[in-house]
């Protein structure tokens, strides 16, 4: 008797459920219809509004309509989830009443774990192949090749560990999902296996460290040894651009002093140093292929970072602390264009340390050319010592006894 | 025995009754000195801050996905920070900065450590409260003030701090460098000082409570891994945070009193500044001397929580308890000598970079040991998939995925090209962001009954877990490849670079994944709030766990246990011990009551117990022979 009434209530509840869900369905349909209409209307309305008011987008009723639409959509979703939850609860209760087994969430979650693992591995594979192919082309510098080799080794190693550990994690979760019939295996520790998995990673990491350490030492050695000579290029960062300075015929860059910055002397080049006289200004960083290049990096205001990813070059530009990076480009821009099958390809130097509002657009084109092209190009560059600057300096030389601070005042005008 | 107990704690009881009279709303909920209430205060403030920081991240994700579109709603909401319905570049940087600051410090340090150290340390070591309840209260209120100051910076004219959460000078020191370096930065620094004060007071409390107030029988090697993790985290915090104060104070001096600790040779907006002789690198050293231990301050409590929850729900002892503790100690010590790996390309002496590379890769060894031990804990377990268990598994998965990319970044040579790119963003969001937040959520689901006396809804928990877990992977996995393409972090838009335009569609995908994962948190919020008031009432020990907190009554009382504090006889991981009827033996059960399941290793340093045990087994054998 009791059972009967319970069944009845069950039935009525199920019935109610049906009505409920139908209502929700129709509501949903209405909303989506209304919403798409509104959105369409808004899409056509917005451009006209903005064009009329000259880009001054203020809150329009259309905007609030679409906001309301999305909020309602979300609420409907919540209601749907709530209903599904209720259905599950009712279903579970009815099973209980019929003395059947309740929903076994352990099995369901275990199954989702294994499903997640399979789909996840496929997703990772897809991501590595699809998005992995969108990454930087091969290294265009001597040391970059070594970095890429090390990257490949590390990738293979970590991918192996990744697949193994993630597999074990989700496989164990699935295989050993709970059941009343089983008892877990009491295993507090096992010294042998623990030693193994301490020592093996230690050895692998030691190997990586040793290779990494020597490569790092080699890359960061920025001074020319005997018989080596690099082209020194001065790179100065300021908000929000890079300034380049090439040495003239003497191959030497003149000294700089930040107190001299101002007027026509935007780098603060010290013209008391004779090496400064023939220093050249350039808009593009043009460098000859297979020649050692030494960047003298500095910043005027805040920290910037010289980042040339194609050459695997990066070093911060720090005000008050000159830094140096030496590298040898190996592939010309023209050759890289054919290799990447992209006629517009350019090497770039851009800022990679947050430096202010326009940090996202602080770039310089880098062009790797042949030796002869480079010589031709460098011959066309103009010295920093422009006529305007000469005039300013003459003025300063005439009053040589003035101290620096006064000089600075004069230059600041 | 029971009369003895009452006599023992008669004074305490008297005080309790006395206090109860005056328990006003103000003393119970606001200026509470009870560790359980303070834990709840930390948790709810932490969750609130997490939602705020998450909203900020969705705002800048929208900008990254749709750099050319205008959203009139943004202007309505943000006013001058989003003119014409597009985020201002400076405000974009503010969002990034405040998102990072809130998440790292306010959510994953205070929200995680603050909540669970406060709740669990007294309950799991068997103490009536923290060593200094008043200081504990101060710790919360300093944290609260820090939160308020940090958020108030959204209301100053030039906007909040925007130099990145690492606030490197000179950018953060020169108000002319960016608007956010004005009053916004000042508020950031004040907030941070309050926060560090809070953190120190909390940390000193945790350390002294763990060291001095353990109950009878609770020696260090009987402490649950949660307590070990919280203890070592607190030690790290106490040693590292003061260094950040030093760094911050010097920055305040540079900003406000014209000193040159971090500044030198600066020309800004055409004006030559008088600073000379300082070094921006000095700040980075000071910052990362805290900053690196900080990431372990964030992840270690999550590790402890995950270890405990995995053991309880696998119905199996944690595999290699000693190894787990030693690896935590190893991480604690090593974390102080690896900070330089954040500075490989700053112009720091390259030799120093090499040394930091060696120490950094060494720290991967204890991390690997922990991972393998977690896997071994699952092996041949009897896993109950509570939402807490799922979050613990998710935490391990994130820790693996994010940890492995650390091997790339810890290698100085590889870091040259990866530093400050999206590869780094992906790495730390998985290994310390997602993993730590999963540890925190795991703890919330697991100890919710202890905190509020009610259970959270399991099915909503499942929904919350899967949406968040999948969402987080969809958001952060593709970012690795953006990094490998040389896309820098903290870029307002990718539109200025021809080569970066290919990532715009990926950005749209990431943003939508983030929005869905963000909306999934509503399931958590609803579940959390609803369950506090209307959730199913819990039993005393809903998860059949061994640790001491489940021996306290469901109703909270000041002093935790109504009678005597229980004595501890065994380690906390006697799950599924062969020979025992039930699959768990709480720490308060003496070996004399479990003769059938005792094993020789239970009696290290306990010869009396061992003798009794062998006597018992010989009589058992004799009895069997008689039969």
What tags apply to this protein structure?
heterodimer; A: 413 residues; alpha+beta; Immunoglobulin-like; five-stranded mixed β-sheet; disordered C terminus; B: 627 residues; mainly alpha; Cytochrome C Oxidase, Chain A; two-stranded antiparallel sheet; 19 helices; 63% helix; globular; disordered N terminus
Layout: helices, strands, pairs:
The complex is a heterodimer of chains A (413) and B (627).
Chain A: H1 2-52, H2 61-97, H3 105-130, H4 142-175, H5 191-220, E1 231-238, E2 241-246, E3 280-282, E4 285-288, E5 293-299, E6 304-308, E7 313-317, E8 323-327, H6 333-340, E9 347-351, E10 363-369, H7 371-380, H8 387-398, H9 404-412
Parallel strand pairs in A: 1-5, 4-10
Antiparallel strand pairs in A: 1-2, 2-3, 5-8, 6-7, 6-9, 9-10
Helix pairs in contact in A: 1-2, 3-4, 4-5
Chain B: H1 2-8, H2 10-21, H3 25-30, H4 35-65, H5 72-78, H6 89-125, H7 133-152, H8 183-212, H9 225-256, E1 267-268, E2 271-272, H10 280-314, H11 321-334, H12 350-362, H13 364-378, H14 387-409, H15 412-418, H16 422-452, E3 454-455, H17 458-484, H18 504-534, E4 536-537, H19 607-626
Antiparallel strand pairs in B: 1-2, 3-4
In CATH terms, the superfamily of the largest domain in chain B is Cytochrome c oxidase-like, subunit I domain
Helix fraction of chain B, binned, reads 55-70%
Largest sheet of chain A: 5 strands, mixed
Low-confidence stretches of chain B: 1-19
Give the C-level CATH assignment of the largest domain in chain B: Mainly Alpha
């Amino acid at each position: 008797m009791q059972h009967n009434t319970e069944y009845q209530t069950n039935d009525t509840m199920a019935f109610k459920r049906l009505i409920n869900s139908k209502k929700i369905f129709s509501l949903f349909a209405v909303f989506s219809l209304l919403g798409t209409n509104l959105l369409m209307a808004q899409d056509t309305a917005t451009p006209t509004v903005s064009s009329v008011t000259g880009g001054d987008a203020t809150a329009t009723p259309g905007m609030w309509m679409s906001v309301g639409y999305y909020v309602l959509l979300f609420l409907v979703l919540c209601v749907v989830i709530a209903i599904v939850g209720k259905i599950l609860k009712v279903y579970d209760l009815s099973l209980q009443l019929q003395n059947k087994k309740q929903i076994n969430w352990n099995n369901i979650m275990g199954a989702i774990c294994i499903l997640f693992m399979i789909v996840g591995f496929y997703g990772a594979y897809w991501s590595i192949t699809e998005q992995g192919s969108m990454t930087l082309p091969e290294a265009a510098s001597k040391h970059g090749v070594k970095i890429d080799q090390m990257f490949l080794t590390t990738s293979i190693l970590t991918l192996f560990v990744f697949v193994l550990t993630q597999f074990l994690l989700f496989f164990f979760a699935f295989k050993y999902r709970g059941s009343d019939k089983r008892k877990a295996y009491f295993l507090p520790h096992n010294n042998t296996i623990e030693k193994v998995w301490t020592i093996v990673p230690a050895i692998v990491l030691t190997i990586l460290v040793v290779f990494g350490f020597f490569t790092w030492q080699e890359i960061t050695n920025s001074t020319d040894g005997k018989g080596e000579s690099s082209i020194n290029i001065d790179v100065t960062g300021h908000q929000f651009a890079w300034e380049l300075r090439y040495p003239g015929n003497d191959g030497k860059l003149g000294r700089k002093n930040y107190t001299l910055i101002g007027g026509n002397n935007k780098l603060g080049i010290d013209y008391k140093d004779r090496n400064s006289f023939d220093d050249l200004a350039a808009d593009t960083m043009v460098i000859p292929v297979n020649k050692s290049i030494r960047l003298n990096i500095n910043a005027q205001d805040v920290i910037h970072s010289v980042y040339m990813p194609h050459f695997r070059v990066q070093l911060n530009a720090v005000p008050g602390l000159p830094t140096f990076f030496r590298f040898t480009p190996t592939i010309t821009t023209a050759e890289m264009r054919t290799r990447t099958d992209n006629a517009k390809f350019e090497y770039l130097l851009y800022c990679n340390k947050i430096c202010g509002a326009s940090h996202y657009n602080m770039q310089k084109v880098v062009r790797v050319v042949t030796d002869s092209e480079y010589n031709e190009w460098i011959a066309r560059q103009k010295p920093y010592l422009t006529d305007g600057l000469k005039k300013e300096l003459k003025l300063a030389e005439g009053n040589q006894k003035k101290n620096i601070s006064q000089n600075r005042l004069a230059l600041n005008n | 025995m029971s009369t003895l107990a009452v006599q023992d704690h008669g004074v305490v009881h008297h005080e309790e009754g006395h206090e109860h009279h005056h328990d006003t709303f103000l003393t119970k909920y606001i200026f509470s000195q009870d560790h359980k209430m303070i834990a709840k205060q930390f948790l709810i403030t932490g969750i609130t801050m997490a939602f705020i920081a998450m909203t900020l991240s969705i705002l800048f994700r929208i900008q990254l996905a749709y750099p050319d579109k205008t959203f009139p709603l943004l202007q309505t909401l943000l006013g001058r920070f989003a003119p014409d319905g597009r985020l201002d570049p400076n405000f974009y940087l503010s969002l990034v900065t405040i998102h990072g600051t809130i998440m790292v410090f306010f959510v994953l340090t205070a929200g995680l450590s603050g909540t669970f150290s406060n709740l669990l340390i007294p309950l799991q070591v068997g103490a009536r409260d923290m060593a200094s309840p008043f200081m504990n209260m101060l710790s919360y209120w300093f944290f609260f003030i820090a939160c308020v100051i940090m958020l108030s910076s959204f209301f100053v004219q030039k906007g909040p701090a925007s130099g990145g959460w690492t606030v490197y000078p000179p950018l953060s020191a020169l108000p002319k460098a960016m608007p956010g370096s004005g009053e916004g930065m000042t508020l950031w620094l004040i907030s941070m000082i309050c926060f560090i004060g809070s953190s120190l007071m909390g940390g000193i409390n945790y350390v002294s409570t763990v060291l001095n107030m353990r109950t009878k029988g609770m020696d260090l090697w009987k402490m649950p891994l949660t307590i070990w993790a919280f203890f070592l985290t607190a030690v790290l915090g106490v040693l590292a945070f003061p260094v950040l104060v030093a760094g911050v104070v010097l920055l305040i001096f540079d900003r406000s009193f014209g000193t040159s600790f971090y500044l030198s040779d600066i020309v800004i907006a055409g004006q030559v500044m008088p600073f000379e002789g300082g070094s921006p690198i000095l700040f980075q050293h000071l910052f990362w001397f805290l900053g690196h231990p900080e990431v372990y301050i964030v992840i270690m409590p999550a590790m402890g929580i995950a270890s405990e929850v995995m053991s309880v729900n696998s119905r199996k002892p944690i595999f290699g308890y000693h190894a787990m503790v030693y690896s935590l100690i190893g991480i604690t010590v090593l974390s102080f000598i690896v900070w330089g790996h954040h500075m490989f390309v700053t112009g720091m002496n390259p030799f120093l970079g090499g040394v930091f590379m060696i120490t950094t890769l060494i720290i991967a060894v204890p991390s690997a040991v922990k991972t393998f031990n977690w896997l071994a804990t699952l092996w041949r377990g009897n896993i109950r998939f509570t939402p807490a268990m799922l979050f613990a598994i998710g935490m391990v998965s994130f820790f693996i995925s994010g940890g492995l990319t650390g091997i790339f970044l810890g290698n100085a040579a590889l870091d040259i090209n990866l530093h400050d790119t999206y590869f780094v963003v992906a790495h730390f969001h998985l290994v310390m962001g997602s993993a730590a937040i999963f540890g925190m959520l795991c703890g919330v689901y697991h100890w919710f009954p202890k905190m509020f006396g009610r259970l959270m809804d399991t099915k909503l928990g499942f929904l919350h877990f899967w949406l968040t877990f999948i969402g987080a992977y969809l958001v952060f996995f593709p970012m690795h490849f953006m990094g490998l393409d040389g896309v820098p972090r903290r870029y307002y838009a990718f539109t200025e670079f021809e080569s970066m335009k290919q990532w715009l569609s990926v950005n749209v995908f990431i943003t939508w994944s983030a929005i869905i994962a963000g909306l999934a948190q509503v399931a958590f919020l609803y579940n959390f709030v609803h369950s506090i008031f209307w959730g199913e009432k819990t039993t005393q020990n809903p998860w059949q766990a061994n640790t001491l907190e489940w021996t306290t009554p469901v109703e909270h009382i000041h002093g935790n246990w109504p009678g005597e504090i229980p004595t501890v006889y065994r380690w906390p991981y006697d799950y599924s011990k062969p020979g025992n009827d039930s699959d768990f033996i709480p720490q308060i059960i003496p070996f004399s009551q479990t003769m059938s399941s005792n094993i020789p290793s239970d009696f290290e340093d306990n010869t009396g117990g061992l003798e009794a045990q062998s006597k018992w087994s010989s009589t058992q054998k004799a009895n069997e022979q008689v039969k």
